[in-house]
Design brief:
This protein is an alpha/beta fold and about 210 residues long. About 50% of the residues lie in helices and about 15% in strands. Bound molecules: adenosine monophosphate (AMP).
């Protein structure tokens, strides 16, 4: 099974991707995670991408496509995968179609997670991430046992620089301007599955399973 997760920042793409990954034994490919890793490792690509990510702007297509192409060339993708955060504009969608065609891979579904702006802002502004294992928490919806410390590995929690209010607003604007059109793009390919993602993560996952199974 090959799936794309589409939706605004804060719709729960990362959280649902993790559940899908373990339930269906798929590979989770998140361009946001790949980019943040490149930034933390100070690679050439990471240095170039850093300022775009911090502002909440899209990183130039060339860099993201380089990352995706490299990742989709690894043998483990034959298990099936979830693309989380890619594509994010029309030209990335077009390039993805061509890349998959070349590799003889079929994209089965594009799951569109829909959430209201109020829910999105509440989720993103309370999100905290572990510096070591990258697990996500939330100050209200999923608090850790000890404030600021990861329940899983004991690492320090931080607030992503693009989860500050100004960057959140910019990411939402960019989503509307550049990404939302992909709903029509995949709808016309008859691949789109729409899910109401305004609920808690386990409820959304049940809905997701029911449309995929
Ligand atoms: P995410 O973790 O998916 O919210 O992504 C965090 C940030 O990484 C985004 O705000 C962008 O700056 C960058 N990013 C992730 N995926 C892409 C993409 N497909 N195209 C361009 N920039 C991306």
């Amino acid at each position: 099974m090959q799936i794309v997760l589409l939706g605004p920042p804060g719709a729960g793409k990362g959280t649902q991707a993790k559940s899908l990954k373990s339930y269906f034994n798929l590979i989770h490919i998140s361009t946001g995670d790949l980019l943040r890793k490149a930034v933390s490792e100070n690679t050439k690509l990471g240095v170039e991408a850093k300022e775009f990510i911090e502002r909440g702007d899209l990183v130039p297509d060339k860099l993201v496509i380089e990352l995706i192409n490299e990742r989709l060339s690894k043998p483990d993708v034959s298990r099936g995968f979830i693309l989380d955060g890619f594509p994010r504009n029309d030209s990335q969608a077009d390039i993805l179609d061509k890349m998959l065609q070349k590799k003889n891979i079929i994209l089965n579904y594009v799951v569109y997670l829909e959430a209201s702006e109020e829910i999105i802002i509440q989720r993103l502004s309370g999100r905290r991430v572990c510096r070591s294992c990258h697990e996500n928490f939330h100050v209200k919806n999923m608090p850790t046992k000890v404030e600021g410390i990861c329940d899983i590995c004991g690492g320090e929690l931080y607030r992503r620089s693009d989860d500050q209010e100004e960057a959140i607003r910019n990411r939402l604007k960019i989503y509307t301007e550049k990404t939302e059109s992909l709903v029509d793009y995949y709808s016309s390919q008859e691949k789109l599955l729409k899910i109401d993602a305004n609920f808690d993560a386990p409820v959304v996952f049940e809905k997701l399973k029911s449309v995929l199974l």
